[in-house]
Amino acid sequence: MISTLCVFCGSSMGRQPLYASQAVMLAEYLLTKNIALVYGGANVGLMRVLADTMLAGGGKVVGVMPKSLVEREVAHDGLTEMHIVAGMQERKAMMADLSDAFIALPGAYGTLDEIFEILTWNQLGIIKKPIGLLNVDSFFDPLLRMLDHAVKEKFLRPEHRELLLDGVNIVHLLRDLEQYKPVIAEKWIERLKVGEI
Length: 197
Ligand code: AMP
Fold this sequence. Notes:
Elements: E1 4-8, H1 17-32, E2 36-39, H2 45-56, E3 61-66, H3 67-71, E4 81-85, H4 88-98, E5 101-104, H5 109-123, E6 131-134, H6 141-152, H7 158-161, E7 164-167, H8 170-179
Bound molecules: adenosine monophosphate.
Residues 8-12, 40, 42, 44, 47, 69, 74, 107-111, 114 line the site of adenosine monophosphate.
């Protein structure tokens, strides 16, 4: 059961209002399910939209922020809980510890870095927690194509490709994350013969 969800998303609003409205819808759905939110703790972009919608609805919001970003005054000062950590690595580790599952909304380097770190930890068996992309207006299609290409070129095992769920519907994506069964497959494909995967 998912009682705490970590959301990675842009520190910008993006070009279309649809991105913010999907962040609002996600927060509203989490409120109906009484799911707590863990996120990066900022008061900018989609991150802020998500946190403010949760807080306005009486939801629990936990921020995890490196000291350097707090000093740059991008911290949200109204959260239920705020953890200030030394750096970005500690932040990702704490967000992972606190959460049962992960969703990414559209974003840039920060969002992609976070989602790929969580995928890598799952691939290595360090954690076994579900991860999904909310594919708002096909935003993540080029990324999904890239991953399928990596499978085709035998850099990524199909079982590991399946670690990343995606969907356009918030209710269905959350349901898929709830039903997720951890993948058990060895990472070290070098032990196999060339062309075998
Ligand atoms: P980006 O996708 O590059 O906009 O980065 C957003 C993601 O990276 C969020 O999930 C945050 O955890 C982190 N991040 C990037 N920029 C900031 C910021 N200014 N304040 C707080 N967190 C940020």
